[in-house]
């Protein structure tokens, strides 16, 4: 017998917690994190990477679980540190020839700016002079020391970072300079003293002088940063699992702040905003890496490096080509030049805008680097949805107040706010806002999520604001130097003395970088025009993006197994859905046909006292229902149309009980009460239910109100007969009975429906081939699906109601009351009404599908809840073997794309 593990025994720890850069590779992201795995890969490729080692995510998990580092970790780190010291010919923090290292986070998935980094570990009062002598530059040494204290104090010791920033600003003002590079060695030495005093005052301890203590505390701080509020928020936003942990990379320092022949930069192998090939990135002379991504100093374009340091530029271009060919994708690269020597500090597959994702995918196919199946996996439905958002009308009258770097595309309009707290507060009140900052930092994440768009006066395409905004698909304009942002006075001043106060409306164009005062009108995106047939993707002048979308969509349609239908209740929506690629209607809600002028007829039906009155009311509704279906079958000729019989409670068709009660009371006080109002009020009271969504609705209406479902079935059958006979069309109606909980309900309704259909076929002399099925939207229906399938030609999973009944949630109430708290506490990663709950609701869908097909192998299976257009849910429905998904017309392209991606992913898995 196999041994069983004692649940009280802790599983053994891994035997190895530290890997040298020479030991790993890019496929070890789970263990080494993205940064560590890619540093190892570049080392293996022979690229100039500073020596170093990586502490694994497994060590982080042990620490987070127990509150202590693994017992073996210290010795392993010491062993690798000694090897690093031997390689570099220096010892960590020694007085005369100090080795300095960086301590950087690196999770499996990129989380830009969310976790902690500390540079220049190893500097102290004893070694700063040695570093100055080693570099031949006293200013550089004191600049590096003040940076260490500032980063260490904020990141490791928890000191308010503004205290350091204020001291730095005061030093620059006292010197009469605007940027820190203009401070000399004496200024920086004095600043170091001030920074140390801040640390002592704020923490009650002196800045640590022992280099190994600095490193160990920094490692622990990186581990801790995995669970900071901002990191948790980012993971929820990006749906990154919370149990992965982060690796820690300890790398020998190379210095970009050694003078004008040194510098640091970020480069992209293609433009992450547009996807165009070329030289894209930012460079900053005499700076360390954090200066670029923080956006605190405005950079120069990467192309300018050619004139500053051509040998380094040429080497960088060659390395970029090597990396893109090796990774077969857009690469995001961090580098430092130390006195003319180029060093690679990081590479990763770069975040990109939605438009760039589609363009780059097709470009790489044309270059022979990837095939169409891989191109399909490089894009997703969320990106396609972004491309369908409107854009600003170029012909509109506008007042442009500035132009900056187009960092992340889109057309965003909102009220100006100047801090994240206000952005969140106003957004929760229903206001649309634009977050305006000098530069953003990780603490601004809440506000960035809440805002329609982000505008900064500093930074470039590689700044924190730009990188995070692109990852979220949020409109962003960066580096608007001509706009003066005053966060204390809460205003922005534009050229010409134009002042934008908090609350004033501004518009930002993330595609052009333009900033406008006031609201700019929007027009449909070219991608929507393409889907609606108003733009031909094959035309010579067609938008390059449209061509890329067309190519990828064509491949997705070729490989997908899931068909995509629309939720549509009228001919106009049906026609639009068909233009968007719908292969039928998966849900036509007939209750929407009972509103407007027809409400009075429904009232007559509800108030009917006799069979004759009821039949008369149904008789008046019949031709109107029939006319609706004739139009629908014409719009969807040749494609299936699933018509759901009346589903909601009858009280929804009657006046509001409070308004009606007041009206009757006022009339009675005037002694001119309306008889019809009195009868309506009696009916409203009679039909009132404490929980109407679980009351008299769906199939129960058809069983309690004689003739109601028969009238609807007759209208469907007669409309189909008319379409088939008179118009020689091909109507393919499917009749769906809602809210069935037991097969007996379905049997009774089916028997009545078949009699009506047979009568119409006989009178009209036509074979309609109508099918009858049901919605699976109650747990009991899912659990008895095998029985229900005996009387059903098809199942359509109503995942909205199924989610409500499985969870015991009232969707209309809970999303506004406590879902926000559930999301913040991590109980939900995402709302179960947005993405299907695979473990609960999903397991019922899976088991019902299996049981239904066990009874009836040819049973058609679909889904018509909102999950039918959700990307992640579509993959689940493909996996469990449904035949189609149905969603709102504008989500059809997204569902088509994701159905193709699901199929391509399955094919890839099978081939592996």
UniProtKB/TrEMBL annotation:
Binding site for substrate: 589, 644, 777, 798-801
Residue ranges constituting the Pyruvate phosphate dikinase AMP/ATP-binding domain according to the UniProt record: 73-298, 309-355
EC supergroup of this enzyme: transferase
Active site: 464 (tele-phosphohistidine intermediate), 864 (proton donor)
One of the Pfam families matching this protein, by short name: PEP-utilizers_C
Alphabetically ordered keywords of this record: ATP-binding, Kinase, Magnesium, Metal-binding, Nucleotide-binding, Pyruvate, Transferase
Segments forming domain PEP-utilising enzyme mobile: 431-513
Catalyzed reactions per annotation: pyruvate + phosphate + ATP = phosphoenolpyruvate + AMP + diphosphate + H(+)
InterPro entries: ATP_grasp_subdomain_1, PEP-util_enz_mobile_dom, PEP_util_AS, PEP_util_C, Phosphohistidine_dom_sf, PPDK_AMP/ATP-bd, Pyruvate_phosphate_dikinase, Pyrv/PenolPyrv_kinase-like_dom
Binding annotation for Mg(2+): 777, 801
E.C. numbers: 2.7.9.1
Signal peptide: none
Record-linked Gene3D superfamilies: 1.20.80.30, ATP-grasp fold, A domain, ATP-grasp fold, B domain, Phosphoenolpyruvate-binding domains, Phosphohistidine domain, Pyruvate Phosphate Dikinase, domain 2
Known cofactor(s): Mg(2+)
Keyword Chaperone among UniProt keywords: no
PANTHER family noted in UniProt: PHOSPHOENOLPYRUVATE DIKINASE-RELATED, PYRUVATE, PHOSPHATE DIKINASE 1, CHLOROPLASTIC
Protein name: Pyruvate, phosphate dikinase
Species the sequence originates in: Streptomyces paromomycinus (Streptomyces rimosus subsp. paromomycinus)
């Amino acid at each position: 017998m196999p041994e069983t593990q004692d649940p009280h025994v802790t599983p053994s720890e891994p035997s190895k917690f530290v890997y040298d850069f020479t030991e790993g590779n890019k496929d070890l992201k789970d263990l080494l994190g993205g940064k560590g795995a890619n540093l190892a890969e570049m080392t293996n490729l022979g690229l100039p990477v500073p020596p170093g080692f990586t502490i694994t995510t497994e060590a982080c998990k042990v620490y987070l679980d127990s509150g202590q580092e693994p017992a073996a970790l210290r010795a392993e780190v010491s062993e690798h540190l000694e090897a690093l010291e031997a390689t570099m010919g220096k010892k960590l923090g020694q007085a005369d020839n100090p080795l300095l290292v960086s301590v950087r986070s690196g999770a499996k998935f990129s989380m830009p700016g969310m976790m902690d980094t500390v540079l220049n570990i190893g500097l102290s009062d004893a070694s700063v002079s040695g570093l100055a002598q080693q570099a031949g530059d006293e200013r550089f040494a004191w600049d590096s020391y003040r940076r260490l204290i500032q980063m260490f104090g904020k990141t490791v010791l928890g000191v308010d970072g503004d205290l350091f920033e204020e001291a730095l600003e005061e030093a620059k003002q006292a010197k009469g300079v605007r940027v820190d590079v203009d401070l000399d060695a004496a200024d920086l030495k004095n600043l170091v003293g001030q920074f140390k005093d801040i640390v002592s005052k704020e923490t009650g301890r002196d800045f640590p002088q022992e280099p190994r203590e600095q490193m160990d505390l920094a490692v622990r701080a990186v581990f801790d940063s995995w669970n900071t509020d901002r990191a948790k928020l980012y993971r929820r936003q990006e749906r990154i699992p919370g149990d992965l942990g982060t690796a820690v990379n300890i790398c020998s320092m190379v210095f970009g702040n050694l003078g004008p022949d040194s510098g640091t930069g970020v480069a992209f192998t293609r433009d992450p905003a547009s996807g165009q090939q070329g030289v894209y990135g930012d460079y900053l002379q005499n700076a360390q890496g954090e200066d670029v991504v923080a956006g605190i100093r405005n950079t120069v374009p990467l192309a300018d490096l050619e004139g500053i340091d051509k040998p380094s530029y040429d080497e960088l271009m060659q390395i970029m080509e090597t990396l893109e060919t090796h990774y077969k994708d857009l690469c995001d690269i961090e580098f430092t030049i130390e006195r003319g020597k180029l060093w690679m500090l990081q590479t990763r597959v770069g975040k990109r805008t939605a438009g760039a994702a589609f363009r780059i995918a097709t470009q790489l196919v044309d270059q022979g680097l990837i095939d169409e199946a891989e191109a399909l996996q490089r894009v997703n439905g969320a990106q396609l949805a972004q491309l369908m958002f409107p854009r600003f009308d170029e012909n509109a009258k506008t007042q442009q107040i500035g132009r900056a770097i187009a960092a992340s595309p889109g057309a965003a309009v909102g009220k100006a706010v100047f801090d994240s707290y206000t952005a969140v507060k106003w957004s929760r009140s229903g206001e649309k806002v634009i977050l305006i900052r000098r530069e953003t930092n990780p603490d601004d994440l809440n506000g960035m999520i809440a805002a329609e768009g982000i505008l900064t006066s500093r930074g470039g395409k590689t700044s924190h604001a730009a990188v995070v905004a692109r990852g979220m698909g949020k409109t962003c304009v960066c580096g608007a130097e001509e706009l003066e942002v005053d966060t204390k006075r809460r205003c922005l001043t534009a050229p010409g003395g134009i002042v934008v106060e908090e609350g004033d409306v501004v518009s930002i164009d993330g595609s052009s970088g333009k900033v406008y005062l006031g609201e700019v009108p929007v027009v449909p995106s070219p991608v929507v025009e393409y889907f609606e047939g108003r733009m031909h993707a094959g035309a010579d002048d067609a938008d390059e993006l449209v061509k890329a979308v067309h190519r990828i969509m064509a491949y997705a349609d070729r490989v997908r197994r899931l068909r995509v239908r629309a939720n549509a209740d009228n001919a106009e929506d049906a026609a639009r859905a068909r233009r968007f690629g719908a292969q039928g209607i998966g849900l036509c809600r007939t209750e929407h046909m009972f509103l407007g002028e027809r409400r009075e007829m429904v009232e007559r039906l509800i108030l009917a006292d006799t069979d004759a009155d009821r039949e008369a009311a149904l008789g008046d509704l019949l031709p109107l229902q029939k006319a609706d279906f004739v139009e629908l079958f014409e719009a969807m000729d040749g494609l299936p149309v699933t018509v759901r019989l009346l589903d909601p409670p009858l009280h929804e068709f009657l006046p509001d009980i409070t308004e009606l009660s007041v009206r009757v009371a006022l009339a009675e006080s005037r002694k001119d009460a309306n008889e019809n109002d009195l009868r309506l009020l009696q009916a409203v009271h009679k039909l009132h239910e404490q929980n109407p969504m679980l009351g008299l609705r769906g199939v129960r209406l058809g069983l309690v109100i004689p003739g109601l479902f028969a009238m609807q079935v007759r209208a469907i059958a007669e409309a189909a007969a008319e379409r088939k006979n008179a118009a020689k069309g091909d109507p393919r109606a499917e009749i769906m009975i809602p809210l069935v909980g037991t097969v007996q309900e379905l049997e009774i309704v089916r028997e009545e429906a078949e009699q009506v259909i047979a009568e119409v076929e006989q009178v009209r002399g036509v074979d309609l081939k109508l099918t009858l099925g049901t919605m699976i939207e109650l747990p009991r229906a899912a659990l008895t699906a095998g029985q229900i399938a005996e009387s059903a030609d098809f199942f359509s999973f109503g995942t909205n109601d199924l989610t409500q009944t499985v969870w015991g949630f009232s969707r209309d109430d809970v999303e506004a009351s406590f879902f926000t708290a559930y999301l913040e506490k991590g109980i939900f990663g995402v709302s179960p009404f947005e993405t299907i709950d695979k473990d609960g609701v999903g397991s019922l869908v899976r088991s019902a599908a299996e049981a239904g097909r066990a009874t009836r192998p040819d049973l058609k299976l679909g889904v018509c809840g909102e999950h039918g257009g959700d990307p992640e849910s579509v993959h689940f429905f493909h996996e469990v073997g449904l035949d189609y998904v149905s969603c709102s017309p504008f989500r059809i392209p997204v569902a088509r794309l994701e159905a193709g991606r699901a199929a391509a992913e399955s094919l890839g898995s099978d081939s592996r």
